Amino acid sequence: MDGLGRAGFVNGLTLALASAGLGACAVSTPAAITDSQNASGTINNLQFVAEEGVQSGLGKQFKSALANALSAQGVTLGGNAGYLADFTVAERPADLALQDVTGDDANASAPASDFKPRFFHTCKAHRVSASLVIYNKQSGALHSKSEGEYIACPGDTSQLGVLANLLATRALQN
């Protein structure tokens, strides 16, 4: 009986440790490109459309990460640029899906989310989505665009720089 009690204790301890390990599992999916249009030529310099419009929060962090990513790719940022860049960044619950709407979507229905919460997630996951669009300043023509996202716990910006690098790299590809 003494041996059976010890085995039960060891099994119970193992189960408790495994449960604690699962309870510490956070939500995280790597940053990835979701859509893009390759560049029509090489970009050496560009200017952000809203130089002063982004003052705080996620937008400010993303703009800084994007500026660093573009500079690392050899792009000069400044006022006398031949290209204009604009970006968006948003955070929303991961189980909320969005759908592109066109003029033909008069009877569109809500899409299903590709994210399914699991019992071992430690938070209600959020999806951080961002896009980068580059225009030719002189003609106004679309030069390139890229969109991407990652899923993490609310307020987790640890992948924001990775997302900015992915978007910059894809938008500058020919």
Descriptive account of the structure:
With 174 residues, the protein is an alpha/beta fold. It has a single domain (25-98, 111-172), classed as Double Stranded RNA Binding Domain (2-Layer Sandwich), CATH 3.30.160. Helix content is 29%, strand content 28%.
The top level CATH class name = Alpha Beta
Order of helices and strands, N to C? HEEHEEEEH
Per the CATH scheme, the topology name is Double Stranded RNA Binding Domain
Helix content: 25-40%
N-end to C-end Cα span: 73 Å
**Tally of DSSP helical segments:** 3
**Global outline:** elongated
Radius of gyration: 22 Å
User: Overall pLDDT, averaged?
Assistant: 78
Number of strands: 6
Please, how many domains? Answer: 1
Which regions have little confidence, pLDDT < 50, spanning 5+ residues?
16-25
Task: Going across the biggest sheet, name each strand in turn.
Answer: 1-6-5-4-2-3
CATH architecture: 2-Layer Sandwich
Strand proportion: 25-35%
Structural class: alpha/beta
Largest sheet: 6 strands, mixed
Oligomer: single chain
Please sum up the structure shown.
With 174 residues, the protein is α/β, with parallel strands linked by helices. The protein starts with a helix and ends with a helix.
